[in-house]
Amino acid sequence: MKPLWQIFVMIAREHPVAFWRGAALSVIVLIMGVALLGLSGWFITAAAAAGLAGLGTVFDVFRPSAMVRFLALGRAAARYGERILTHDATLKALEALRTRLLGGLLRAPYGRMVRLRGAQAVNRLTADVDALDGVPLRLVLPVLAGVATQIVAFVALWALVGLPVALWVLLGYLLGMAAIFWQTMRKAAPLSRRAEVAAQAFRARLIDLIRARSDLTIYGRLSAQAQTTLAAETRRIDLRRQQDHAERFAGLAIQMLGAVVAGGSLWIGILMVQAGTIAPAFAALGFFATLALSETIAPLRRAASEIGRMTEAARRVSRDLIVPEGGVSTAPATSALPLALDRVTLHRPLSDTPIVSDLSLRVAAGETVALTGPSGVGKSTLLLAVAQLHPVAQGQLTLGGQGVETWDEDALRQKVTLLPQRSALMSGTVRAALQLVAPNSDDAALWQVLDSVQLAETFKARDGLDTQLGLRGEGVSGGEARRLTLARALLKRPHVLLLDEPTEGLDTETAQRVLLGIRDALPDAAIVIAAHRTVEITFADTSVSLG
């Protein structure tokens, strides 16, 4: 329950005035509902008793009837205001929550980010935020308002009817609802969690079906994928049906609880009337007020059925909102920064098995070093570690004489740029793809980096910088996409450039021209290449074997 409370506090803090005004109005709505029905019961019974006693002509019907109208109209107005204030505050808070959540995901550890699937991450984020609107609106506020109303009603019934009725009503509703809520939550919480997992599976499989429909058709798997997608949706519907059954059972139990508590209140009231302790009209007041108090527990049936989904969403969101603190150091003022590794040991991702052991290396400004060795010896992992995207088990990495781990995140990204084996392109123009790293770059600078990677003539023959790229860079070949991401890295003008197989897919002549263009564009940069090809190894000033 702690994550739920944390999310509620965060939502309430976004717009506290509107939120707590709405909360106060929700209490007022419930109190006015109890007062309305209790007063109506008292008024009808008192008027009937006055008529039987022959006192109908002197019985004051105007003030009670006026109060009934006031409570009826006031309750409707308060309900309207409560809905506007609480829903508006919640929706605005969730808007801010989405922004913070995206910021937290962008600052998540690299190891977690690389495991995220785009469709899965977006679906999860959307579903989690949608689930969290129920935390204040269907769980916390109804509970707080219901308890507050029960306490106020207890005091009022004690004063007007008597302690036995007041105590019976308070204990009956609170203990009965606690039992119903716990039982429903115990059954429905696992169902709501599993239904949400099935819904996420359906969405992810449907997106995969749409995006990979060509490949699925070619290999004859389109129908099988469609059946898998429908199976996930069928499972979600079945789990949702079971969850609805638990919710309906909770609704029945709540109605029965209300009937039992109201019947007990009436029986206690009759006994008190027979004992001469209270008048019949006040016994009726207690009975009708008890009926009205059932409204304080009615919203909890849905909260109990959805609490599993809300709890899981709150846990994930609370985790993703945690933003690691950046380093406090600033970047050295030097114009070129040497890179040094001192007895560095790296482990495989999610393992304690060493992949690089006791490595010492120095890369001076303007020097190119090639890391060689067979696949799996740690070349890519070493590049990730230099870019602070993989932890160092032992030893130290320094940039400009300063430990890389102490650098401020933004300062480090200005100095160090990594081009991994797989780099992403988004839909848009070539200009937009390049300006992603340097939004203020002019066209001359863009053409310069395209020329460095032998792409200038390619795009001049099309629509120039306005050449359109499709989803994930569709519209250019694999080699062109690779060089375009390399040009984007050059535009950053880093002091340390880390390249993972930068000429993969290029013929030898083009690869040589691209490598020369990289050095011409960054004459003072320290360049480290994870190299497989001879053209990359011979281009480097030094080669270091990791195998």
Topology:
Layout: H1 2-14, H2 16-52, H3 62-106, H4 110-113, H5 118-132, H6 134-160, H7 163-211, H8 213-218, H9 222-274, H10 280-293, H11 300-321, E1 339-347, E2 354-363, E3 368-372, H12 379-386, E4 394-399, E5 402-403, H13 409-415, E6 416-419, E7 428-429, H14 430-435, H15 443-452, H16 456-460, E8 468-469, H17 478-491, E9 496-500, H18 508-521, E10 526-530, H19 534-539, E11 542-545
Parallel strand pairs: 3-10, 3-11, 6-9, 9-10
Antiparallel strand pairs: 1-2, 1-4, 4-5, 7-8
Helix pairs in contact: 1-3, 1-11, 2-3, 2-6, 2-10, 5-7, 5-11, 6-7, 6-10, 6-11, 7-9, 7-11, 9-10, 9-11, 15-17, 15-18
Molecular structure report:
The structure is a single chain. This protein has 547 residues and is of the alpha/beta class. 65% of the residues lie in helices and 10% in strands. It has 19 helices and eleven strands. The chain has helices at residues 2-14, 16-52, 62-106, 110-113, 118-132, 134-160, 163-211, 213-218, 222-274, 280-293, 300-321, 379-386, 409-415, 430-435, 443-452, 456-460, 478-491, 508-521, 534-539; strands at residues 339-347, 354-363, 368-372, 394-399, 402-403, 416-419, 428-429, 468-469, 496-500, 526-530, 542-545. The strands form three sheets. It has a five-stranded parallel β-sheet with strand order 6-9-10-3-11, sandwiched between helices. A four-stranded antiparallel β-sheet has the order 2-1-4-5, with helices on one face. A two-stranded antiparallel ribbon has the order 7-8. Helix 2 (16-52) runs antiparallel to helix 10. The longest helix has 53 residues, at 222-274.
